[in-house]
Write a structure and sequence with these properties.
Length: 199
């Protein structure tokens, strides 16, 4: 297959990454070949190596970009202030942000096992960094006397799992709008940390 006319690194690299993300999410990392990715983009298989060292590099790049974007986006919207304000903001951020990135979220959880040990360690560190943002809020809430928790780490993991679960069932055509889902989940998270919905 001939390389597309006018192809360049600036134009083609994002196309390669997008194709890899679609195919990894649809078929799984192990089942996708570089040749399939090349066909999806419309370049020769050998040309892919102009844009990535190998398939592992593509997977790592997708997961690394996803986590860096999550961290950067939360840093922008984090309102600061007391734990109650920040916890609500975290829920209101996490659900819509991840619903807009279903393929990236799916890959980031399902394909961790296919990373090399070094790449896995890098992604795990980024994930822990994001989780630590939430745990810091919970610790602050305990210090403020606002939250009643047995263990902030365990509560952090439970809240993240609950919020991520929205990706598995939410449909735009369902009974609730995104805004309604977020409002309901804010209430549930507040109750999980020991405060009423009105606090």
């Amino acid at each position: 297959m001939a390389r597309k006319s006018g192809s360049s690194a600036e134009k083609t690299r994002p196309l390669v990454q997008a194709a890899a993300k679609r195919l990894f999410a649809r078929h799984g990392y192990a089942a996708v070949s570089m040749r399939q990715i090349a066909a999806e983009v419309g370049v020769q298989a050998g040309a892919l190596y102009l844009y990535t060292p190998d398939k592992q590099g593509l997977l790592f790049g997708l997961l690394n970009t996803h986590m860096e974007e999550v961290l950067a986006a939360w840093a922008v919207v984090d309102p600061g202030g007391n734990a109650g304000t920040r916890l609500q903001a975290f829920v209101e951020f996490h659900i819509p942000h991840h619903l807009e990135r279903l393929e990236a979220v799916f890959i980031s959880y399902m394909e961790l096992r296919n990373l090399t040990p070094e790449n896995f360690a890098t992604i795990e560190a980024l994930r822990r960094s994001y989780e630590n943002r939430l745990e810091d809020i919970l610790k602050a809430g305990v210090s403020e006397g606002r939250y009643r928790l047995e263990d902030t780490k365990l509560t952090t993991m439970a809240i993240i799992a609950m919020l991520n679960g929205v990706n598995t069932w939410y449909k735009e055509s369902g009974r609730f709008s995104r805004e309604q889902v977020v409002e309901i989940y804010v209430d549930m998270v507040k109750r999980a940390v020991g405060v009423s919905a009105r606090e």
